[in-house]
Amino acid sequence: MRGVLEALHQGDYDTAIERLTRKALFGSRGEAREALLLLAEVHSLYGEEGLEKAHRALEEAYELGGLEYDPLYRALLGELLALEGRGEREVLALFLPTEDPRARYHQAQALFYLGRFEEVLRTLKEGLPAFLAWRAEGLKGRALERLGRYREAALAYERGAELALGLERYWLLLDAAAMWLEVGEGERALLALEEALGAVGEEPVEDAATRHYLLARAHLLLDNPNRALEEVQRALALEEEGGHKAYGTPLLQGQILLRLGRYAEGMAAFQEALARAEGPEKGYVLHEMAVAALDQGAYLEAEEYLEALLREEGYPYRAQALADLAEALYRQGRYQEAEEMAHRAMRQGAEAAGELILGHIAYDLMHLEEALAHYRRAAELAEEGSREWVGAQEMVVDTLVQLGYRSPEEILARAEAVLPHIHPADEWHQALIAYRERAEAILREGRRPN
C-alpha cells in the first residue's frame, strides 16, 4: 500500500483509486478488504460528493467478513452517516474504543459533522499517514475556529500547511491568514499570505480573489488604507473574471473608503454589497451602512437602514441594532422615542449601549446625577476598550467635572484608564488631559470642591 499512500499524499487520487480498485478485484480476501476500506476512506475525503462511492466500498468490504467490530470500518460508517445528517444516537453507537489514529480521525470527522467540536480535539491522535496528517490539523483548525479560539486555529492551520503539498498547503495558509486577522495579527496574516503564494504555481482565479481580499483586510488592520484599497480592487476584478461575486468584498471596499473619508463612494460600495447579499448577509450590510451614516451625522438615513435591518429575520446582533436606532433617534432630539428604544435594546442584551444613550438624554436635560449613574453603569457593563466603554468613561469624567470636579480621584483614575484608547488627534484627548491636570492640582492642594 506504500505506493497508494504516497499517491494520496501527492494528491494523485486517480492513481490511488485505480490501484485500490485493482487490489479489491484481484487481491486476496484480506488484501481486498483492506483496499476497500482505504477506498472508502479516499471517497470520504470528497465529502458529500463521495458519499455514494464511499458507502459502496464499505458495503463491499463488509461482505468480505470480519468487519462487524472493526473500529476503522465503524468509524468510517459513522462519518458517512453524520455527513448525511443522521442523529447523534445512531452515529455515536457505531464508535468503538480504539487507539488506532485512522479510526480516531474518522470518529473526529463524524463528531465535527455533529457539532461536537471539543470532542473533535480530544479524539484526534498522532501517527496518521501523511495524506491524513495534514487533514487532521485542518480539522483541528476548523473545530477551534467554531469554538472561537482563533489564535489556536491559525496555528493548527499552519501546522497542517507544513505537512501538506501544493494547493492543499496553499488553502491551509489562506485559512491561517483569515484566523490571524480575526485576532488582529495583521503582520502574521501577511506572512501566511506570502507563504501561500509561494506554495502554488498558477492560482485558481477564485482563490486569488480570496487572497487579495485577505491582503486588503490585513493592510486595513495595519492602517494602510490606500494599499488596502488597491488589494480589494484586485479582488473585485478577479471576482468579476471568475463569476463568483461575494458580498464581503464590496463590503470591505466600503469600509476602506470610509477610512479614507470618502463617504459617498463607501456607501455606493455598501449598496453593491447589499445587492450581492443573500439571506442573513443583508443584515450585516445594512448595519454597516447604518453605523457609517451615524458617524457621518446622517441620522435620518441611519434610522432608515436600521428600520430595514430590524425587519430582517434572524439577524444575530439585533440588540445592538436597537441601541444604534436609539442613538439615531437621540441625535435627532427625539428623546422619548430614543429612551423607549434604549430600554428595548437593554432587554435584548445591549445593556451598556442602552445605558449610554439614557445617560446622554439625562445629560442633555441637565439631570446630571441621573446621567452620572447611567454612565457609571455603562462603564461597568461594557468590555474594556469597546466603543461603549470609552464613551462611558469619557462621560463619567465630563459629568463629574460639570458637577464641580466632584471626586477628583475618580476623575484622575478614569481619565488615565481611558486615555490610551483615544487617538491623540481626538478632541476628547486634550479635554481629558486638561481634566486630569485640574483633578491632580485639586488633590495636591488637599482641598475638595463644594
* Spatial extent as radius of gyration: 29 Å
Order of helices and strands: HHHHHHHHHHHHHHHHHHHHHHHHH
Oligomeric nature of the chains: single chain
Q: What distance separates the N and C termini?
A: 88 Å
Class by alpha and beta content: mainly alpha
How many helices does DSSP assign? 25
Could you describe the 3D structure shown?
InterPro entries: TPR-like_helical_dom_sf, TPR_rpt. It holds the Pfam family TPR_8. The chain is an all-alpha fold and 450 residues long. The protein is built from 25 helices and no strands. The chain is elongated and about 95 Å long. The termini are far apart.
Briefly, what is this?
Pfam families: TPR_19 (PF14559), TPR_8 (PF13181). With 450 residues, the protein is mainly alpha-helical.
What are the SSEs and their pairings?
Elements: H1 2-9, H2 13-26, H3 29-44, H4 51-63, H5 71-84, H6 88-92, H7 101-113, H8 117-123, H9 130-146, H10 150-163, H11 166-182, H12 186-198, H13 205-221, H14 225-242, H15 248-259, H16 263-276, H17 281-296, H18 299-310, H19 318-331, H20 335-347, H21 351-364, H22 368-381, H23 387-402, H24 408-418, H25 427-445
Descriptive tags:
single chain, 450 residues, mainly alpha, elongated
